[in-house]
Amino acid sequence: MRRAIAALMLIAPIAGAQAIGSIERLDPAFDALVPRDAKIEKLAEGFAWTEGPVWRKSGGYLLFSDIPNNTINKWKDGQGISVFLRPAGYNGATPSGRELGTNGLTFDANDKLVVADHGNRQIARINDSIFTRATLADRYDGKRLNSPNDLVFHPNGDIYFTDPPYGLEGINDSKVKELSFNGVFRLKPSGELTLLTKDLTFPNGIGISPDGKTLYVAVSDRTKPVYMAYDIQPDGTIARGRVFFDPAALVAQGRIGSADGMKVDARGNLFATGPGGVLVFNSAGKHLGTIMTGERTANVAFGDDGSTLYMTADHKLLRIRTTTKGIGF
Asked: Are 260 and 273 in contact (CB under 8 A)?
């Protein structure tokens, strides 16, 4: 999600991982996902705007984007923070916006890093052994994408991604915006790109249920944020769009943050950033509880053995232990 560039502070690892925030428990089912003694821990701070966390199982470390600083950072237990890739996104002389870095990050079946490249307005695969970049998609119907924001792999290998204009100067009014809409797309391994919907104002975070049958999309519209769900059809398209959860009541309470990034656990529960921190829903859209970070929380990722939830929250990196695991662990 787009925000003004903050002044870069000293990036600081947190000795002993300080506890912050609080936990809101709304349903007994929440206790089976986040234990009663769980604490939100602050691991590092001093970034401009953190996003797109992903755990690399083969290396035992977390990667996450610092979009305004055009950097992918690495965090590893016992070692702290280091720069994994800079520039992470745009490296030319005439940028089309201020958010030049990557946003969402994920890994493909071959452990290659695949990124929503804000600055270069594309979905790209990075070979981090030699740090080369291959464009997977940067145009639809001959027109440049806006600024791909978040992405997720379907079990069949297709990439589903959102394409709001947050990376462009002027957002929807940008002079370099070529598409008249902000879409949700599906990219097949063959390179075929399909527009799934252009009816959402600001599609942002995206997730897929463990059985591959439901697509979730967060809409980060400041006037009406909402979480949507769609049926994924056998041909990969989507149908029966419906409101999964409307956070209007939480916004009215003055809770900080908007509908943004998300991850689905192995049981089908949705951990979605939003007003207050990280909202936890069951597969029916019931709000079970909230991990109250006290920050504008952008995205989440399961890591370690799958039962740690890492959270990118404004200029901080946080984590909390869970009793559920992410998909793929």
From this structure: yes
Is omega for the bond preceding 148 within 30 degrees of 0, making it cis? no
Residue 163 structure tokens: 């394409």
Residue-wise pLDDT for 194-221, tens only, equals 999 999 999 999 999 999 999 999 999 9
Interatomic CA distance for residues 79 and 37, integer angstroms: 26
User: Residue written as tokens 């192995």?
Assistant: 266
CB neighbours (10 Å) of residue 140?
Answer: 19
State whether the Cα torsion 172-178-183-187 is positive or negative: negative
Q: pLDDT tens for residues 40-98?
A: 999 999 999 999 999 999 999 999 999 999 999 999 999 999 999 999 999 999 888 87
* Domain range summary for the chain, segments of one domain joined by +: 12-321
| Residue 237 CB contacts under 8 Å (≥ 6 apart), including other chains | 186, 194, 196
Exposure of 12 by Cβ count < 10 A (0-12 exposed, 13-18 middle, 19+ buried)? middle
Asked whether 237 and 215 are in contact (CB, 8 A), the reply is no
Q: What is the spatial distance between Cα 29 and Cα 127, in angstroms, rounded to a whole number?
A: 41
Q: How far is CA 307 from CA 73, 286, 303, 310, in A?
A: 21, 21, 7, 10
CA–CA separation, 44 vs 158, rounded Å? 33
What spatial distance separates the first Cα and last Cα of the chain, rounded to whole Å?
A: 27
CATH number of 12-321: 2.120.10.30
CB atoms within 10 A of CB 9: 11
* CA–CA distance, 267 with 299 (Å, rounded to integer): 19
Strands across the sheet containing 193-197? 151-153, 159-163, 183-187, 193-197
**Residue 99 in contact with residue 67, Cβ under 8 Å?**
yes
Identify whether the C-beta of residue 64 lies closer than 8 Å to the C-beta of residue 53.
Answer: yes
